[in-house]
């Protein structure tokens, strides 16, 4: 705007203010060996306390858990399997004989529903 930059500057940053602040000589103080002794004990720093942290998990091992398995993984010893398809104990959904029969019937039904178009 063509004005003097000093007009926009605060008095704190002017050279005259700096010269006024340091016009008087600063005399050093005497060393600690010349200070007057008092009967008061010196102030000590506060006692360091261990900060509380997130508590660790209590991980218990099951009696039948072997040492070869990963932590937290239980063995299947003594577990009775029950099928989700037919409800019979002794096998699971993967080995269910009823499911294999159902799959065969579904495959046969899909094959019979398939429309075969032959164009000559």
TrEMBL record:
InterPro entries: Znf_CCHC
Residue ranges occupied by any CCHC-type domain in the UniProt entry: 82-98
Metal-binding recorded as keyword: yes
This protein's UniProt keywords: Metal-binding, Zinc, Zinc-finger
Ranges of compositional bias, category Basic residues: 52-61
Start and end residues of each stretch annotated as Disordered: 44-75
Protein name as annotated: CCHC-type domain-containing protein
Originating species: Hibiscus sabdariffa (roselle)
């Amino acid at each position: 705007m063509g004005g003097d930059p000093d007009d926009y500057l605060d008095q704190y940053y002017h050279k005259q203010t700096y010269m006024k602040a340091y016009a008087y000589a600063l005399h050093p103080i005497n060393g600690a060996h010349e200070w007057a002794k008092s009967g008061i004990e010196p102030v000590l720093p506060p006692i360091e306390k261990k900060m509380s942290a997130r508590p660790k998990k209590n991980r218990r091992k099951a009696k039948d858990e072997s040492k070869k398995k990963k932590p937290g993984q239980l063995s299947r010893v003594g577990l009775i399997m029950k099928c989700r398809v037919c409800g019979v104990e002794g096998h699971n959904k993967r080995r269910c004989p009823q499911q294999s029969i159902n799959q065969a019937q579904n495959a046969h039904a899909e094959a019979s529903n398939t429309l075969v178009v032959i164009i000559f």
